[in-house]
Amino acid sequence: MLYPKPLLLALFSATSALCATLNPDFSGTGNIFVVKGSELTTSPAAKVGCLTASGRFVSDYSKCGIFAHDPANYTSMESPVGHCSFGDPSAESGRPQAPPLYAFKCGNPSASTLFYSPNFGEGAGSPPWIWVGNLNWHFEATKIPTAGEDTSLFISNFINLPADRFALMLLWAKLS
Questions:
Q1: Interatomic CA distance for residues 144 and 146, integer angstroms
Q2: What is the span of the domain harbouring residue 97?
Q3: pTM for the structure as a whole
Q4: If you average pLDDT over residues 141-165, what whole number do you get?
Q5: Cα 120 versus chain centre, distance
């Protein structure tokens, strides 16, 4: 498990106080698009790929997985392969940090990550950017995959991002 449940509840409480509401579009089924950028003002049009049902980052949009998220359960992120998270120790390890972080991977029912999407706007609000853990919307990869390639995607602490990493964000594209 990536974070103990009391910590998850405390973090969500702090997030709720800061954000007031969660984005209602981050629910049901959807694709997860990967967007190059690091600021909440980044245009969703800056998509460079998506995540497959197994959790791999690809540039071929025909391989985008379909995920399910229940906003009543903040650790829910499912694909046809199974439960998805950044907390599966069988996945590739990310940059050294504490607690250890792993690549996004689907299939381990005991691995857990907190997923949510704050609403920072008037009316319809902001795009449904996916946040994880401790108020974090930053992700990274060592490359943007080309046709036929796939790569791992990691949570990023964004501070001191090495020159060999790309700053990325995740965007929920609701299907139903």
A1: 7
A2: 5-174
A3: 0.85
A4: 90
A5: 17
